[in-house]
């Protein structure tokens, strides 16, 4: 993927992949990069991903995850080592028809590091009139062209560095985890609905692109749930406790009674997801704070 960008002169991170830890360490030494990302080529969220600043940390991530089954059911039979990109992380979703690309939605990720692990907190829909929207869109168009993606949905992760946007990775697929009905409500359309339009009536899809670009979106926040407790879930799951949150549009809790609940330590370990929808950021922030307070009580009562 990165090789294709480099051949097309699209700015990108340095990277290398191998089944051999020795080859990965050799690449790390030769390139003299202080901070790198270690990740399996196939997977989801931050499963098996580590932020490393030493050979010891690289070896630890590799040995812990190589030849193990990941979140998507694939075996991690090799590893990618990639230059760590400083800057804000964004997710860029698009739909393409015959090489014409349209950015359906961009999400700004808010996260933090705990050791070598990246912990997601929430993602927020970026307004189309935000100064970074067009910068990210223009770059993603070039990246999709370089990767040969001409039709269908795509899901890209991009870092906006001091040197401009640089691709982390792209999948020729729909975004995962989102409740598209909430995106429809707040954005006027979603990647799912436009993918269907692009297949059933591609000519009309192309004609409507200018109209889509003029729609003003509301404020949407995708929340990663956190558990600060662990143990066996001894009670039935009752999400009614979250009902007082005015802007809560969707909540998806992944566990059931008698399941084992662990403390949230990395992205793939989140026990659930929720989506908030509001008219302005002030109300969104208020609902988010309320959600976190109720969430802590919710998990305490499960064990």
Description:
This protein folds into 3 domains: 1-83, ATP-grasp fold, A domain (Dna Ligase, domain 1, 2-Layer Sandwich); 87-217, D-amino Acid Aminotransferase, Chain A, domain 1; 220-302, Alpha-Beta Complex (Aldehyde Oxidoreductase, domain 3), CATH 3.90.1170. The mean pLDDT is 92. It is an alpha+beta fold. α6 runs antiparallel to α7 (202-214). 32% of the residues lie in helices and 30% in strands.
Helix-strand makeup class: alpha+beta
Choose one word for the global shape.
Answer: globular
- Spatial strand order of the main sheet: 9-8-5-6-7-10-14-12
Uncertain segments are: none
Q: What share of the residues does DSSP label as strand, in percent?
A: 25-35%
Instruction: Please write the CATH class name of the largest domain.
Output: Alpha Beta
Largest sheet: 8 strands, antiparallel
- Helix fraction, binned, reads 25-40%
What's the quick description here?
By secondary structure, the chain is an alpha+beta fold. Helix content is 32%, strand content 30%.
Helices and strands in order:
Layout: H1 2-7, E1 15-18, H2 21-31, E2 36-39, E3 50-52, H3 55-65, E4 79-83, E5 88-97, E6 100-114, E7 117-125, H4 131-147, E8 152-161, E9 164-171, H5 180-187, H6 191-200, H7 202-214, E10 219-224, E11 231-232, E12 248-253, E13 260-261, E14 272-278, H8 281-302
Antiparallel strand pairs: 1-4, 2-3, 2-4, 5-6, 5-8, 6-7, 7-10, 8-9, 10-14, 11-13, 12-14
